[in-house]
Amino acid sequence: MLDEVDVISSVSGGSFPAAYYGLFGRRIFADFETRFLKKNIQNELYSQTLEPGNWFRLPSGKFARSDLAAEYYDQNIFEGGTFGDIAARGGPLILVNATDITLGTYFTFSQEIFDILCSDVSRVPLARAVAASSAVPLILSPITLHNYAGACNYQAPQWVQRALDDPALSRRRFQKATHLRSYMDAHMRPYIHLIDGGISDNLGLRAVIDWLIAPGDMWQALHYLGWENTRKVVFILVNAEQGPDFQLDQVGRTISSRSVLKSVTNIPIIRYNFETVELLKGNFKQWTEEIRSQRCGTENSPDRSAPAYSESDPCADIKFYLVEVDFEALPNQSERSYLRGLPTSFNLPPEAVDRVREAARQILTESPDFQRLLRDLK
User: Fold this and answer.
1) Which are the contacts of 3, defined by CB distance < 8 A and separation ≥ 6?
2) Which of 117, 98, 123 lies closest to 108, judged by CA?
3) At what angle do helices 218-225 and 205-213 cross, to 10 degrees?
């Protein structure tokens, strides 16, 4: 089933395995553990700042901590690989997402976005994209991209102009079109500053949803991608959010500023995660009907208010699945608490890494929706 994966959308720390798999394929199962998961990357990055050669670069204003991190990732993890190398390998499309610090929305390293910037994503080092996607504010600095918009003959897709001309058609599409239009003005935005993708979309789902429905509807998206014969669309959602910290409610005195900052950071992420998942689920029924009506020719039916097909028709065979890999699904409460209490860090104990991976395996294989998918594939 791994060979059937078409798209991987990643944010923050998840961009490391996503980009690594896109670049090296199944090699990830052989050496990613020793090269990243169980390596003290945090200490390695700190050591880089102490190198005499970096003493003058870091305070220069043109080279910052995330640039240093990108250099380390490039040399020690991704071996100089680029998005062009991923494309040449022919694996799944890898969408690495960061956050546009000005717009407060996700920024995807894709050719569609780089076309607007009059640039070529295939030449972008994976290390730099991953560094942007995982640039935790205050700890790491933003990654900066140059905007060359206007230096090429870029023409915005028709849906962008339609959305701008008639905002009432879809407020979400209008907002997306407005954000894209801002990139077209290199005089107003000559540089794009990017930080951790988890701030704008901690699940990496918004980018996929917008990518699928931007052409108009799901059927048009499948037609555009050449997936008209698709019968099953599976979303495997990996959600490592920490959840609420009820230990705070055991404290009668004033809560520390550090605890307040942690909660204030987690609250919008948790709420936004919930809304994003519900948005996806809510689209499933609409997408199913869009595909069935277009594939089965409802528009040619004498009575357009009624479907021109029955659910047993081959053309109506389309199903959506959402498989959620979430710590909440673990039956063992103590294990849930342990895993949710792990810090966001580039240095986890080997035992913690093993327990996270085992939990993910258990949650996936025991997922009712994953089991339903396996039964439907027989």
Assistant:
1) none
2) 98
3) 90
Please state, in angstroms and rounded to a whole number, the distance separating the CA atoms of residues 198 and 201: 5
Measure Cα distances from 55 to 41, 51, 68, 185 in Å: 20, 7, 11, 36
Rounded to whole angstroms, how far apart are CA atoms 164 and 141?
A: 33
pLDDT for 300 equals 46
Mean pLDDT of the chain: 88
Mapped onto helix, strand or coil, the DSSP state of residue 329 is helix
- The span from the CA of 14 to the CA of 43, in Å, is 19
Q: Which two tokens stand for residue 206?
A: 């918004």
Residue 16 CB partners (closer than 8 Å, separation 6+):
36, 77, 130, 134
CA distances from 112 to 62, 122, 199, 219 (A): 27, 12, 22, 20
**Closest to 41 measured CA to CA, from 68, 23, 79:** 68
- The alpha carbon of residue 203 and the mean position of all alpha carbons in its chain are separated, in whole angstroms, by 6
Report how far residue 180's alpha carbon sits from residue 189's, in angstroms, rounded to the nearest whole number. 12
What is the length of the chain? 378
pLDDT on residue 257 = 66
Q: What are the angstrom distances between the C-alpha of 181 and each of 105, 150, 161, 219, 247? A: 14, 12, 9, 25, 45
Output Rg (C-alpha) for the chain, integer angstroms.
Answer: 22
Largest CA distance in the chain: 78
Residue 32 in this model has a pLDDT that exceeds 60: yes
Q: Which range is least confidently modeled, 34-43, 115-124, 269-278, 342-351?
A: 269-278
Instruction: Tell me the pLDDT tens digit for each residue of 54-70.
Output: 878 888 878 889 999 99
**Residue-wise pLDDT tens digits, 71-103:** 999 999 999 999 999 999 999 999 999 999 999
**Cα–Cα distances in Å, from 361 out to 190, 280, 319, 367?**
44, 23, 24, 10
Residue 52: which H helix or E strand, with range?
A: none
CA distance 327 to 363: 8
Number of H-type helices and E-type strands within the chain: 15, 7
Give CA–CA dist 116/152, Å, rounded: 9
302 — pLDDT class (breaks 50, 70, 90): very low
